[in-house]
C-alpha cells in the first residue's frame, strides 16, 4: 500500500513539473508574440508614413539611379576627370511601363511595405534582443552588448553601398545592353522595382557577415584558423558573388564591389579571433 502511495505521489509531482514546464514554454511563446506584435505595429506605422509621402520617395529615391544626374554617375565622372581617366557613364534612359490595371496601386502598397520593413529592422532587432536577453547569463549579456547597434549599422551600410554603387552600375549596364538595334528596351515597373530592391537589400544582408561569423564562432563552428586557411577559396567565392551581383563585364565594377567584401571577410576573421580569445580566457579562469 505504501509503495502504491509513493508511486502515486511521484506521478503527481512529475505531472506537476511537466505542466509547469509546459506553462513556461507557452509563457515564452506569449512573450515572443507580443515582441513581434510591437515590431509589426512599428513597421505598419513606418509603412503608413512612406505611403503618405510616396510621391517624393518614388521620384527621388526609387527612380534616382535611373537618371544621369544621380550622385554615383556624377562622382565617378569627376573622379575620372581628376585622375585623367574616363569613368563617365554613357547617356541612357530607362522607359518604364505598367501592364496591369491595378499595377500602380499595388506597386505603391508593396514598395511602401518593403521600405517600411527595411526601416523597421532596427526596432525588430531590438525587440528580438529584448526577448533573448533574459535567457542569457551576465557574461553573455556583456559579450553580446551592442548586437543591435552593430547589426543595424552593418545592414544599412550594405544598403547604402548597394543603392549607391551596385544598383546604378547594374542598371546602367542592363539598360544600355542590346542584342540588336531593332529591339527597344521597355521595362515593366515591377521589374525595375524588383531589381533595385534585390540589389540593395541583398547587399545589406551580405554585409551582416561579421555578425554571422560571430554567432558561428561562439558556437564553435567557425575559427579564425579555418578562415585564414580557406582565404583563397573565399577570394574566389567573393569574385563569383561580385560577378553575379553586378552583371557588368568590366573589371572596374567587379573590383569596386569586391573590395568591401574582402574587407568584410578580414573583419570577420578579427571577430572570430576575438571570440576565440575570449573562450581561451574563460577556460584559463575555469
UniProtKB/TrEMBL annotation:
<comment type="function">
    <text>Part of the twin-arginine translocation (Tat) system that transports large folded proteins containing a characteristic twin-arginine motif in their signal peptide across membranes.</text>
</comment>
<feature type="transmembrane region" description="Helical">
    <location>
        <begin position="196"/>
        <end position="221"/>
    </location>
</feature>
<comment type="subunit">
    <text>Forms a complex with TatA.</text>
</comment>
<comment type="similarity">
    <text>Belongs to the TatC family.</text>
</comment>
<keyword id="KW-1133">Transmembrane helix</keyword>
<feature type="transmembrane region" description="Helical">
    <location>
        <begin position="105"/>
        <end position="126"/>
    </location>
</feature>
<keyword id="KW-0811">Translocation</keyword>
<keyword id="KW-0653">Protein transport</keyword>
<feature type="transmembrane region" description="Helical">
    <location>
        <begin position="233"/>
        <end position="249"/>
    </location>
</feature>
<keyword id="KW-1003">Cell membrane</keyword>
<keyword id="KW-0812">Transmembrane</keyword>
<feature type="transmembrane region" description="Helical">
    <location>
        <begin position="147"/>
        <end position="166"/>
    </location>
</feature>
<dbReference type="InterPro" id="IPR002033">
    <property type="entry name" value="TatC"/>
</dbReference>
<protein>
    <recommendedName>
        <fullName>Sec-independent protein translocase protein TatC</fullName>
    </recommendedName>
</protein>
<keyword id="KW-0472">Membrane</keyword>
<keyword id="KW-0813">Transport</keyword>
<feature type="transmembrane region" description="Helical">
    <location>
        <begin position="36"/>
        <end position="54"/>
    </location>
</feature>
<dbReference type="Pfam" id="PF00902">
    <property type="entry name" value="TatC"/>
</dbReference>
<feature type="transmembrane region" description="Helical">
    <location>
        <begin position="255"/>
        <end position="275"/>
    </location>
</feature>
Amino acid at each position: 500500500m505504501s509503495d502504491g502511495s509513493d508511486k502515486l505521489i511521484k506521478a503527481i509531482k512529475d505531472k506537476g513539473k511537466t505542466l509547469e514546464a509546459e506553462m513556461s514554454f507557452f509563457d515564452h511563446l506569449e512573450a515572443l508574440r507580443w515582441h513581434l506584435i510591437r515590431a509589426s505595429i512599428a513597421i505598419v506605422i513606418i509603412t503608413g508614413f512612406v505611403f503618405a509621402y510616396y510621391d517624393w520617395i518614388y521620384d527621388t529615391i526609387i527612380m534616382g539611379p535611373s537618371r544621369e544626374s544621380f550622385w554615383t554617375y556624377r562622382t565617378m565622372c569627376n573622379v575620372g576627370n581628376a585622375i585623367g581617366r574616363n569613368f563617365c557613364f554613357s547617356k541612357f534612359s530607362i522607359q518604364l511601363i505598367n501592364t496591369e490595371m491595378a499595377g500602380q496601386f499595388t506597386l505603391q502598397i508593396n514598395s511602401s511595405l518593403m521600405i517600411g520593413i527595411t526601416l523597421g529592422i532596427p526596432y525588430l532587432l531590438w525587440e528580438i534582443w529584448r526577448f533573448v536577453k533574459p535567457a542569457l547569463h551576465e557574461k553573455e549579456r556583456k559579450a553580446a552588448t551592442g548586437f543591435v547597434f552593430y547589426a543595424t549599422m552593418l545592414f544599412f551600410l550594405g544598403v547604402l553601398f548597394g543603392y549607391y554603387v551596385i544598383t546604378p552600375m547594374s542598371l546602367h549596364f542592363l539598360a544600355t545592353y542590346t542584342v540588336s538595334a531593332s529591339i527597344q528596351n521597355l521595362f515593366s515597373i515591377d521589374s525595375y522595382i524588383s531589381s533595385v530592391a534585390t540589389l540593395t537589400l541583398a547587399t545589406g544582408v551580405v554585409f551582416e557577415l561579421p555578425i554571422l561569423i560571430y554567432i558561428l564562432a561562439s558556437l564553435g563552428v567557425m575559427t579564425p584558423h579555418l578562415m585564414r586557411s580557406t582565404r583563397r577559396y573565399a577570394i574566389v567565392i567573393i569574385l563569383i558573388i561580385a560577378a553575379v551581383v553586378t552583371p557588368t563585364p568590366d573589371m572596374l565594377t567587379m573590383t569596386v564591389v569586391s573590395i568591401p567584401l574582402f574587407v568584410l571577410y578580414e573583419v570577420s576573421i578579427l571577430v572570430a579571433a576575438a571570440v576565440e580569445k575570449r573562450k581561451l580566457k574563460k577556460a584559463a579562469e575555469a
